[in-house]
Design brief:
19% strand, histidine kinase, alpha+beta, phosphoprotein, Heat Shock Protein 90, His_kinase_dom, 9 helices
């Protein structure tokens, strides 16, 4: 349903262009438009009227309010006669920038121009009573002369120029502030760039120092490994000779020794044997650190390995207070290095027997997901939680711990962990002081 127009008028002569301009401004003011929008609507009406009047006899103008959705002032200018929508649309292209929408088309009896401008959000609500009041005010409106309209236009132009000048001054001020801000940003950028460049130089120097320290550390580690290997190799011959000479002195074919001499020779042989054990451990550890141990992968029969460990270590479990048990493996075969695997388990079992005074020492194996775990559990003295990682350091022994049998060198567990890494697995301990320790060797399971 089309709303009832606020007002209608007919343009016949050029003087009516001034009349429709005044009327358009009055309508725009009455419905609540701001001053600039009033000028835009009035200017758009006068321009359309100026184009339409020479092309026809008269032009019908209607002002309507569309209340649905966003309130809009709509102006319809219809010119009966020839249909010239295409030509007029081209002439009025610039005028369309003054309003929100403009349509030019050929109606049933001639050309129709429709313009629309949205009312501002703060405009008064246009109730039916208010619409009737506006109609009454417009009916009482008396058009001014062209000179009056020219004066109004001049006033509007002056106001527009003042506004443009104010906007230009604001723009100049904003440009000055922006320029000042840019100078500050550039100064900050230069400062940050210098700081970043200095930081980068420091980081580069630090990395160079770290590389140098790493090279020195590698050289020191290699030197230590060479030293251990050379010293161990050089010590093995004299130590072996001492053991041999001690054996000759106590041989039945040699001159008989006194009781004291025999005891002292036995002490010499025992000390030499301990020293040979330490030398062999150092040599093995040096080989492992130098990466000179290459695993020989093959199918390992765990029942045979467990049987060998049971037989070779049984003589060490001589105390009746300790139950030594090597359980039958739950997993029959494993792809690994038989010699290295047996060495790791032997070191763990030997260490457990040394520090277990009563209770048990057990070796078992179990399948865990895609891995296999070898577990050596004892009821020995145990290891405090904060020292459980330190037992894998070379020559470290838990303070206050004393082996029940034999002597510890502090190399068995570090060597066992390195061999575990060579085999592709890991070694760790879980222990409670006074209750015992559980060493777990975990290897990938491939049969």
């Amino acid at each position: 349903m089309t709303a009832e127009p606020l007002m209608r008028m007919r343009l016949r002569v050029e003087q009516d262009i001034f009349v429709v301009r005044q009327l358009g401004r009055e309508v725009a003011r009455a419905v609540g438009m701001e001053s600039q929008d009033q000028t835009r609507v009035a200017t758009a009406l006068s321009e359309v009227a100026r184009v339409l009047l020479p092309a026809g006899q008269y032009t019908e103008v209607a002002f309507t309010i569309e209340p649905i959705g966003v309130p809009t002032l709509q102006v319809t200018m219809a010119q009966p006669g020839a249909e010239e929508a295409a030509r007029l649309a081209d002439q009025l292209r610039q005028v369309g920038r003054l309003v929100d929408t403009m349509e030019v088309d050929d109606g049933g009896t001639g050309t129709v121009v429709r313009m629309a401008r949205r009312l501002p959000l703060g405009a008064p609500r246009l109730t039916p009573d208010r619409m009737d009041e506006i109609r009454a005010e417009l009916g009482r409106h008396v058009p001014g002369t062209p000179l009056d309209e020219l004066a109004v236009q001049n006033q509007q132009l002056i106001a527009a120029l003042d506004e443009v000048r104010a906007q230009r001054d604001d723009l100049a001020r904003l440009n000055a502030e922006l320029e000042e801000t840019n100078r500050g940003v550039m100064a900050l950028y230069n400062q940050l760039s210098q700081e970043l460049e200095e930081t980068n130089r420091g980081v580069v120097a630090l990395y160079a120092e770290l590389d140098e320290k790493s090279a020195q550390l590698r050289a020191a580690s290699e030197a230590k490994s060479r030293f251990l290997a050379n010293v161990s190799h050089e010590l093995r011959a004299p130590v072996t000779a001492i053991i041999g000479l001690g054996r000759l002195l106590t041989d039945s074919g040699s001159d008989e020794l006194t009781t004291e001499q025999s005891r002292q020779v036995d002490l010499i042989r025992t000390s030499a044997s301990d020293l040979l054990t330490l030398v062999n451990g150092l040599l093995d550890l040096a080989k492992a650190e130098a990466g000179r141990i290459e695993p020989n992968w093959s199918e390992v029969d765990l029942r045979a390995v467990f049987g060998q460990l049971r037989g070779t270590l049984r003589p060490l479990a001589t105390r009746p207070e300790v139950e030594f048990s090597v359980e039958e493996p739950a997993v029959a075969r494993l792809r690994s290095d038989e010699v290295l695997l047996a060495q790791v388990l032997r070191n763990l079992l030997t260490n457990a027997l040394k520090f277990t005074e009563a209770g048990s020492v057990r070796l078992s194996v179990r399948r865990v997901d895609d891995d296999i775990e070898f577990v050596v559990a004892d009821t020995g003295t145990g290891i405090p939680h904060e020292l459980q990682e330190r037992v894998f350091e070379e020559f470290y022994q838990v303070p206050g711990s004393k082996p029940v049998s034999g002597r510890g060198t502090g190399l068995g567990l570090p060597y066992a962990r390195r061999l575990a890494g060579i085999l592709g697995g890991g070694l760790w301990v879980d222990s409670t002081p006074g209750e015992g320790s559980t060493f777990t060797l975990r290897l990938p399971f491939t049969s």
